Amino acid sequence: MDSITLGEVMLAMFDWVASHKATKAATADVWSMLRAVCPPGTSPGTYAMAEMILQRHLCDSVVTIPVCRHDCIAYFNFQSTAFHHMQYADLDACPVCCKSRYVTLKGRKIDAKVMYWFPSARYWEFLFSDKEIVPYLYNDLCPSTSPLGSVRGSNGYYRKVLLNPRMNSDPRHQAVILSTDGMPYFKDIQCRSGWPVLMRSAMLPDGLWNSQAYTHMLAFQASDYLDEDPTTGIAHRVKRYDDHVALDAITR
Which tens digits make up the pLDDT trace of 175-185? Predict the structure, then answer.
C-alpha cells in the first residue's frame, strides 16, 4: 500500500463493479477479500459502508431528470430566459411524440427514461482554487500570446468569446467545449450503452484544456428506455436504435 492509496484501491474496485456488471452479492464477496489482504489500519470497511458513502456523494452531486423515451424533451422547467417557454416538469406525456412519460414496473409507476446531470459548480471551484491556473482563466487575455493551433488563437474563439458582449461583461465568464459519443456501460459491448456529455474550459492553457484530469462529465443519458408490451402490459427495456424505434424517429 506504499505506492497506492486506499482511496485509489476503492475507486478501482468500483470501476471493476461497474465495468463487469457485478451483482451486489458478488461485489460484497470480492470486497470482503479486499479487506482481508489490506494491511492493518487500512481496511476499507464493509461494502455496505462503502455503498452508503457513495450514495451520500451521489445525493449531493447528481440530479436525475426524466426525459421523453424518444429523447424529444426533458421533463424539466428551464430557468434561462431563452428557454423560459419550455416548462415541461409537470407533463405526463411528451408534447412532441405523445408517448406517456411513465411505465408500470412491478406495480409501480416510474419514468420510462431518465438522464443524469452533474452540476458543474465543483468543477469551477476546483479550477479557480488552483493559483497557478487562475491567471489563464480570464477571457480578456490577448490571443496573440497563445501558441499556434491553440483554442485561444482560433477564429471561433475570436468570434464567440472576444466579440461576444455577454462574455465581455465579466472577465471571469468561461467559454466551454462540449463533446459526446456513445459508449458501452460494461466490458460486454452487447450490453447497455449511453452518451456521456463532457465539458472542458476553453480558457485552460494549452496542454490542460484537453486533459482528462481537467474534464467534467456534465450529463449522461442512456441509449435505451423502458416500454410496455402492448399485449401483456409488462415493461421491458428497448434499445434506442432498434429498427422500429429508428423508423418511428424518421417518420415523426
Answer: 888 998 888 77
* Torsion, Cα of 13, 111, 246, 87 (10° steps): -120
Q: What are the residue boundaries of the structural domains of the chain, listed by start?
A: 6-61, 68-137+174-252
Q: In the numeric block, which cell numbers belong to residue 192?
A: 447497455
Distance CA 53, CA 47 (A): 10
Summarize pLDDT for 33-55 with one digit per residue, the tens: 888 887 777 777 788 888 888 88
Yes or no: say if 65 and 74 are a contact pair by the CB < 8 Å rule.
yes
Q: Phi, psi (5° rounding) for residue 250?
A: -70, -40
- What pTM does this model have? 0.74
What's the distance, Cα to Cα, between the start and end of the chain in Å? 57
The grid coordinates listed for 108 are 409501480
- Give me the numbers of helices (H) and strands (E) for the chain, helices first please: 7, 10
What angle, rounded to 10 degrees, do the helices at 47-61 and 24-37 form?
A: 110
d(CA 86, CA 95): 11
How far apart (Å, rounded) are the C-alpha atoms in residues 13 and 82? 43
- What single DSSP character describes residue 55? H
In this structure, what are the phi and psi dihedrals at residue 129, rounded to the nearest 5 degrees? -90, -10
Residues 94 and 115: their CA atoms lie apart, in Å, by: 15
Half-sphere exposure of 112 (CA within 13 A, CB side): 29
Q: Which residues contact 237 (CB under 8 A, 6 or more apart)?
A: 192, 224, 225, 226, 227
